[in-house]
Every structure is written in structure tokens, then in C-alpha cells.
Amino acid sequence: MTRWLRAATAIALTLFIALVLTIVPRPQWADALWPTWVALAVFYWSIALPEYFGVAIAWLAGLLMDALLGTPLGAHALALMLVAFVAARAYVKLRLASVWQQALTVGLALALYAIVLFWVGGLTGLDLRPLARFVPVVIGVALWPVIFAALRGFRRRIIES
Asked: Whole-structure pTM over 0.90, yes or no?
């Protein structure tokens, strides 16, 4: 199997798992604490394999997410494009940074993600609970070291074997 095919399989599998984690049934109180799994996966692949994963794939993942969640078409696509763009612009510096320094950039990208979704929700008249939009940003930053280690181990085992 070629490196490209292994990379595409790994990316597709992790995005699928992130989408499943996004739509998995959970108690209503847990909605505000649930991390933005797809945005975290998009950020990781944008810095880990920028030659295989970019803004276009993030846009496709966002459209799929919009279809699954029933949100206005393009809302998550635009938000995930911003996440991928932030990661792509800084990936050289981020690859040299410690995981906690990366977490600060993850926080910025997730905050942009939340702001875009908050803005689209306001334009379309959807629920505008600001706390429910921005708590996952803090949760995502806190989980970044674990997610980064898990995805890096998976990438090394699957792609670079």
C-alpha cells in the first residue's frame, strides 16, 4: 500500500470516528462539555500531514457535518476551513513547538470555529447559548495533549510503518 493510500485511509478513519463522536447520543447536560472532535481532528491533520490534508478536505468534512447535524449548509464547512487555515499557516512553527504551546493555537482555532458557528446561528435564528458554544473551546484545549499523542501514535503506526 502506498504512503498516499495509507494517509488517506488514516485521515478518513479518524474523521469518521470524530463525526461519530459528534453525533453520538449523550445527556443534554453533556452537550456544553462535549469537545469539537472534528475540529480537533482537522487541526491535527492540517499540521501533521499538510501535503495530504488541507482547507478543501476540511470544507468537505464540514459539509458532511452540516448534513449530519442539520445545520445550515456551509456553517461547519466555513468554520472548519478556518481551523485548517490557521493550522496550515502556522504548521511549521507548530511542529517545533511543545504540545502546550500548540494548545494555545488550538484554542485560537477553536475560538474562531465557535465564533463562526455563533455568528451563523445568530443570522439564521438558531439557539444562541454563548456558554454552550465556548466551553468546548476550553475542553478542546485541555484535551489537545491527549488527542495529539493518540493521533500521532496512530499516524506513526499506520502511515510511517
From this structure: yes
Output the CA angle 66-70-76, nearest 5 degrees: 25
- Rounded mean pLDDT of the chain? 93
Tens digit of each residue's pLDDT (9 = 90 or more) over 21-71: 999 999 988 888 899 999 999 999 999 999 999 999 999 999 999 999 999
Side-chain half-sphere exposure of 102, counting CA atoms within 13 A: 25
Residue with cell 479518524: 14
How far apart are alpha carbons 63 and 132 in whole angstroms?
A: 22
C-alpha–C-alpha distance, residues 150 and 148, integer Å:
6
User: Per-residue DSSP letters for 27-87?
Assistant: -GGGGGG---HHHHHHHHHHHH-TTT--HHHHHHHHHHHHHHHTPPTTHHHHHHHHHHHHH
The domain segmentation of the chain, as residue ranges, is 3-158
The CA distances from residue 7 to 13, 99, 107, 114, in Å, are 10, 22, 26, 28
The whole-angstrom separation of Cα 27 and Cα 99 is: 31
Burial label for 8, CB within 10 Å (0-12, 13-18, 19+), is middle
Rounded CA separation 8/19 (Å): 16
| pLDDT exceeds cutoff 70 at 128 | no
